Amino acid sequence: MTAKALRKQTHDLVDQADEQFLVIVHQLLLSHQVSSTPVNFTSSEQAMLLRRREEMISGKVKGIPFKNTIKRAKANLRKKK
């Protein structure tokens, strides 16, 4: 899959993600910017990520509009500064 296709698919998935999942993705992206060291998840974190992914794919999790996601991410960044 090309980088362009991956970005588009990722944006589409982010549009459907709930707040907890967005926090995880946001932290992953920030850690990638800060360090090239891979993120190591515990087995319980891995299980939670897989469960959340399945819930999103199956439609059990209600999506958040992209505009709201961006607003929340920006607000969380401002809180951390």
> Based on DSSP secondary structure assignment, what is the total number of beta strands?
0
Largest sheet: none
Low-pLDDT stretches: none
Number of helices: 4
Could you give the topology of this structure?
Elements (H helix, E strand, L loop, with lengths): L2 H14 L2 H16 L8 H16 L7 H15 L1
Which labels suit this protein?
globular; 4 helices; 75% helix; mainly alpha; 81 residues
Describe the structure.
The chain has 81 residues and is mainly alpha-helical. It is 75% helix and 0% strand. The chain is built from four helices and no strands. It starts with a helix and ends with a helix.
Please sum up the structure shown:
By secondary structure, the protein is an all-alpha fold. It is built from 4 helices and no strands.
